[in-house]
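Inverse folding, one chain.
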């Protein structure tokens, strides 16, 4: 009789533990820059989901390839592929909540760490990439966060971000300058 109640309780506890394990505390901007092994600007050139593994280890992985237009930290080469857990093959999908979804032609700035070693190789999962969108009204390339909202203040990433319009959003050049400034600050601190 007791076993009948223990199994549902164990399943519920396991689900809660797994849910907590995927909760991500948004990294600060300096953590994004520091933890990234590579930071680059690229355009998505291919997205391919495949079945991998055997038996109980069988799963879907998605490979996203970028044509790299600017290496900001490290050297990703001219083309770079990341592997993420999840995706769709045929009519079967394996969805990981809050992971980024990439589409061919999108321009991105990526903060990559532990590629091929973790289920999403971006610092802070969905926080580790920024979309680059051209605004026809201002003529600028603007930065949007993982949810597609324009970014204004790098000190508030993932925390109390306020809605902004295109005229207030950071430009691509603003973000790259901020990254390079943070890299210099980190190098200065390391040399002291």
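Residues assigned per position:
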């Amino acid at each position: 009789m007791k076993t009948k109640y223990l199994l549902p309780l164990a399943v519920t506890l396991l689900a809660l533990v797994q849910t907590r394990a995927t909760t991500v505390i948004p990294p600060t901007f300096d953590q994004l820059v520091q933890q990234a092994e590579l930071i680059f600007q690229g355009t998505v050139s291919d997205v391919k989901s495949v079945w991998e593994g055997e038996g109980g280890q069988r799963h879907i992985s998605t490979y996203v390839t970028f044509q790299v237009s600017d290496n900001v930290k490290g050297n990703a080469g001219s083309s770079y592929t990341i592997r993420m857990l999840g995706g769709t093959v045929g009519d079967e999908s394996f969805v990981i909540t809050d992971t980024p979804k990439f589409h061919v032609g999108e321009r991105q700035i990526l903060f990559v760490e532990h590629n091929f070693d973790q289920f999403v190789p971006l610092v802070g999962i969905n926080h580790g990439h920024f979309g680059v969108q051209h605004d026809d009204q201002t003529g600028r390339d603007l930065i949007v966060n993982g949810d597609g909202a324009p970014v204004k203040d790098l000190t508030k990433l993932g925390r109390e971000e306020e809605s902004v319009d295109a005229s207030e959003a950071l430009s691509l050049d603003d973000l790259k300058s901020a990254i390079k400034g943070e890299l210099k600050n980190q190098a200065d601190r390391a040399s002291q």
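Residues 2-21 form the longest helix (20 residues). Residues 40 and 71 are 5 Å apart (CA to CA).
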